Amino acid sequence: MATGSEFVDLGTDDASVVGMKVTGKATAETITELVERLEQIQGAGKKARLYLDLTAYDGYDLGVVKEKLAHMGTLWSGIERCAYVVDKGWMATMIGLVDAVTPMHLRAFGSDQDADARAWILSGDEPDETIN
Fold first, then answer.
1. Do 52 and 82 form a contact (C-beta atoms < 8 A)?
2. pTM for this structure?
3. Which domain does 9 fall in, by range?
4. What is the DSSP letter of 111?
C-alpha cells in the first residue's frame, strides 16, 4: 500500500474547513502539513473543522508522535470539530473515548457514511448516527 496524505476538496470556500485523506502510514510530513493549515486558520481568529478519511490508514511512523507533541497546543486548541471516516470498529471506539476528554467535538463515521461526515463538518449539526 502506498503511503501518503492529500488534502481533499469538500466543496466549500470556507477556509476553516480542512479535508485530508491518509493512505497507508501517516508520516511526520502529514502532521506538519496539517499543523500549517491549522495555524493559518488560527491566525485568522477561527478554529478548524476537520474531515479525515482514514479508510486506507495503516498506522503511523515514529515521526508522527514527535510532530504531535511539538504542536500539541495547535492540535488541542485549533480544532472545533473533527469527522473521522473509518472502517475499523476499534478506531470508532477510540475516537468516542477521546471525544469525551477533549475540548473539540470528534465523531467517527463508517465509509458508507462519508456524505454524512462531510455534511456534519460543513453544517455544524449533530450527526444522526455514527458507527459503533
1. yes
2. 0.86
3. 4-123
4. G
